[in-house]
């Protein structure tokens, strides 16, 4: 098995329909989720800078809107990680496993 043979196997896989479908599935989830999270994060930053009165509004005791939004940033991060894990298990991993087996067979 030569290095040139190995690279051609990977090039063939990469140009194939299955790989392109895997990329499409990944991007169709990752890009919108990234945009949504960045928008949510920037909303928090902008409100903290320009809507101090609103962010300083006390909800109960010493808990204000800014603290709740800050905690929700962490919550949303964990929810996104959990959702991605489910998406990957259901939509990406089976196709990636097929591709890996195809690469292993062609490399032999």
UniProtKB/TrEMBL annotation:
Keyword terms: Membrane, Transmembrane, Transmembrane helix
Keyword Transmembrane helix: yes
Alphabetized Pfam families for the sequence: DUF485 (PF04341)
Entry superkingdom: Bacteria
Record bears the keyword Membrane: yes
Membrane-spanning segments: 29-51, 63-84
Matches recorded under InterPro entries: DUF485 (IPR007436)
Protein name: Membrane protein
Organism: Microbispora corallina
């Amino acid at each position: 098995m030569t290095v040139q043979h190995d690279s051609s196997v990977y090039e063939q896989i990469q140009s194939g329909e299955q790989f392109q479908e895997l990329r499409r599935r990944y991007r169709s989830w990752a890009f919108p989720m990234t945009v949504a999270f960045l928008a949510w994060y920037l909303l928090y930053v902008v409100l903290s800078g320009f809507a101090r009165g609103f962010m300083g509004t006390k909800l109960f005791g010493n808990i204000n809107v800014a603290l709740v939004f800050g905690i929700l940033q962490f919550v949303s991060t964990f929810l996104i990680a959990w959702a991605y894990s489910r998406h990957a298990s259901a939509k990406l991993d089976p196709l990636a496993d097929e591709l890996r087996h195809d690469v292993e067979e062609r490399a032999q």
